[in-house]
Amino acid sequence: MAAVPLTDAAAWDAYVAGHPHATPFHSRRWCEAITKATGHPCHLVTARDAEGALTGILPLHHIRSPLFGQALVASGFAVDGGVLADNDAIAATLAIGAADIAKSLGVPSVELRGGPLPDGDGWHREEGVYAGFARDLAADDDAELLAIPRKQRAEVRKALESGLTITTGTGPQERADHYRVYATSVRNLGTPVFPKALFDAVLDAFGDDADILTVREEGFPLSSVLSLTWRGTVMPYWGGGIADARRLRANELMYFAVMRHARAKGCTRFDFGRSKVGTGPFAYKKNWGFAPQPLVYARWLAPGEKPRDTNPNSAKYRLQVDLWKKLPLWAANRIGPLIARGLG
């Protein structure tokens, strides 16, 4: 096992393209975009057969933060990733390799967000925290509406009749409006916003496989989401809305419009992403008719070490969250990226 040099980029691309369980978060374009935007280096742990062909990969971003500590994360700023291998034996070998790299770098933790989960010395499984939400898209708008439970369907119908407009694209104005809306949304939740460079890097890396959809009232952005598409699945990934979005049902219109937009692009599945169990977003996605699927992650810890605490709902951060909600947006946008880049 070794870290893959840049000269092997084509092999990385080919392995991900050919593996049935690969996600966008295993891809070189994701990993390089994260490094470009945040400065966190990526170590790609690999396994090879006797002829030198790849049989498994594990991309690890080395997240370093004065507030949250260090970890090797598979992969950075992602909800999935983890080990990608031809079989369980190779997967186990890659997990051992990840722990060995952590030891050599003096990093106290490895965090795997998906893939085969390792057992053994230092590895711990974490379950009951997150759930994922995904289902097939319906054939058309009428069928899509019928797939939504009655109460939420009524809200979507009202949104469709509201006169709000939809724009899509990746140009400078779409990016600026999306970032302003997203930054406002997360500030109102009490969490720091990611650097704008992160969104720009992902959009640039994914090309036609990423775009922004924004709901507007007389041109003014109310809610906006940056989505990825991957093998026929649309993934609304970074989204939010300003305070008026709820009153005007802009979020309802936004997600229904993403479904419609994705169907027009040939997608057949909608991945609503992960949410923490028991939170508002968890309940919201259930209201849309999505069944939660428990997610199990794995973490390796060096002897005597404790896991990083990056959960904004933690009692440890309650005071900071309350104070953050009161910050002027300009201040939150200046300070937030310096903090959020360390969350990974």
UniProtKB/TrEMBL annotation:
PANTHER family: LIPID II:GLYCINE GLYCYLTRANSFERASE. It holds the Pfam family Acetyltransf_6. This is FemAB. InterPro entries: Acyl_CoA_acyltransferase, BioF2-like_GNAT_dom, PEP-CTERM_FemAB-rel, PG_Glycine_Bridge_Synth. It comes from the Bacteria. Gene3D superfamilies: 3.40.630.30. Residues 153-286 form the BioF2-like acetyltransferase domain. It comes from Sphingopyxis witflariensis. SUPFAM superfamilies: Acyl-CoA N-acyltransferases (Nat).
